[in-house]
UniProtKB/TrEMBL annotation, chains A, B:
Residues 24-158 form the HTH marR-type domain. GO terms for biological process: response to stress. One of its GO terms (molecular function) is DNA-binding transcription factor activity. InterPro entries: HTH_MarR-typ, MarR/SlyA-like, WH-like_DNA-bd_sf, WH_DNA-bd_sf. This is MarR family transcriptional regulator.
DNA sequence: CACAGATATTTCAAACTCAAAATATTTATG
DNA sequence: CATAAATATTTTGAGTTTGAAATATCTGTG
């Protein structure tokens, strides 16, 4: 049973916070805890097994889904990180020979970033290993709990979706 | 229904990954997505409303729960970040007058970090505002979904708990 | 007591991250 | 066409983060 708008308003006016508000805070703290723990584990595995980092993996993953490449701005929006952030990571991946920057016809401001053949091959292998790590870290998560988790998280995502153009 | 050990083993040997493994990966990516979006929102609010940052809030929150103060190592373990990281953040918070370092009797290696009176007062106010922000960001999350979310995330946490001493 | 190993913390270099400013280019408007 | 506004990206400065090395101190064993 969801709260309606006037309930929310009453909550905001109220000095002491409601039980629901506290439950939501606990939920957020638990999300944060799991997220940090799993990220820490994955970071260490990437460092040891791949000699690489999580942010680089994320960039490669995004470009593996979009084989024709993406613009810097698309990349940063898709990863939900700042524009300037992506610049540095892409620079390093270009240096490692995983990515190339391709100029865009008719728009000399922009460039498309895409995987090199080597980058594509490397990532394909890494993605399988990565999925195995995640499945192992989540091995107590049943199929139905995975679905439940995804459903609940989506309701949160959608509420906080970026406003339409 | 959970997988047993030999199912996991078969999965590892198997080149193609299972549906369950893919569901777990999707769950992880959704956790990551929500976690990033909410962190971004909170970061911005903290910057604008408090002129402060998320990591500083986290340190203050931990010390607000432990009024007698914590050692640097306890702090970094509790926040799941590296030791060296906490040093820098505590340095800044000491500079802002929110924290003090107190020497530990009988152990000159260690020091206890605790809130100053001003730090305690400031944080108490901020914590209420923060809880309101979270509740607003999670306003589509019902009480039962909050509980469900917490339950599922705890099973993941527990599996990945640090091994006992 | 000597001193090897353990423990607590800081320092360090490299990478990541953000927000804002700067740069370059394109588009729209008069 | 001139040029203001919009767009795409990079640069910059400050802060955060990590993992490893350095420093200081403590503890247990002989």
């Amino acid at each position: 049973m969801n709260m309606n708008h006037s309930d929310d308003l009453r909550d905001l006016m109220n000095n002491e916070t409601s039980d629901l508000s506290k439950a939501r805070l606990r939920a957020w703290l638990q999300i944060l805890k799991v997220s940090r723990k799993i990220e820490g584990e994955l970071r260490e595995k990437m460092r040891i097994e791949f000699g690489s980092t999580l942010p680089r993996f994320d960039v490669l993953a995004a470009l593996y889904r979009e084989r024709d490449g993406m613009r810097m701005s698309e990349l940063s929006k898709s990863l939900m990180v700042s524009n300037g952030n992506v610049t540095g990571i892409v620079d390093r991946l270009v240096g490692e020979g995983m990515l190339v920057r391709v100029p865009v016809e008719n728009d000399r401001r922009a460039s498309i970033v895409r995987l090199t053949e080597a980058g594509e091959k490397d990532f394909a292998e890494r993605a399988l290993v990565h999925e195995g790590w995640v499945s192992e870290l989540f091995s107590d998560l049943s199929a139905s709990d995975a679905d439940g988790l995804i459903r609940i998280l989506r309701t949160i995502s959608h509420h906080n979706e970026a406003p339409h153009d």
